């Protein structure tokens, strides 16, 4: 007899089966992360080749990860505004 517990994916927990509000929230956070990554790259481009995020080959990956971390930890409000608008549009659709 094994003491291992095997996780079984149910329709509620299966990947891609999250409720629409959760999927909208995830999309809004990802949108904010993309926006923040572009801002971080632009901000660090003025620092020269040895700037914070300009070190190759991993500087752009670092900017992407910083942006994801910022967006997941509350961000700058873009995700909340995007989520609010997407939910509003979803409710007003015929």
Task: Report the sheet with the most strands, covering strand number, pairing sense and barrel closure.
Answer: none
Mean pLDDT comes to 80
- Note the beta-strand portion: under 5%
The tally of beta strands, per DSSP, is 0
Low-confidence stretches: 5-11
Our measurement of the CA-to-CA distance between the termini, rounded to an integer number of angstroms, reads 55 Å
What structural class do helix, strand and pairing data support?
A: mainly alpha
Domain count: 1
Question: What is Rg?
Answer: 19 Å
Using the alpha-carbon principal axes, give the shape. Answer: elongated
Helix residue percentage: 55-70%
Order of helices and strands: HHH
List the total number of helices: 3
Give your account of this protein's structure.
With 94 residues, the chain is mostly helical. It has one domain. It contains three helices and no strands. Helix 1 packs antiparallel against helix 3.
């Amino acid at each position: 007899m094994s003491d291992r517990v095997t996780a079984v994916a149910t329709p509620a927990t299966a990947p891609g089966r999250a409720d629409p509000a959760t999927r909208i929230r995830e999309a809004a956070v990802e949108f904010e992360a993309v926006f923040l990554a572009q801002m971080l790259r632009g901000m660090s481009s003025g620092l020269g080749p040895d700037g914070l995020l300009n070190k190759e080959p991993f500087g752009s990956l670092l900017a992407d990860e910083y942006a994801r971390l910022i967006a997941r930890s509350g961000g700058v409000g873009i995700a909340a505004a995007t989520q609010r608008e997407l939910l509003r549009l979803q409710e007003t659709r015929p």
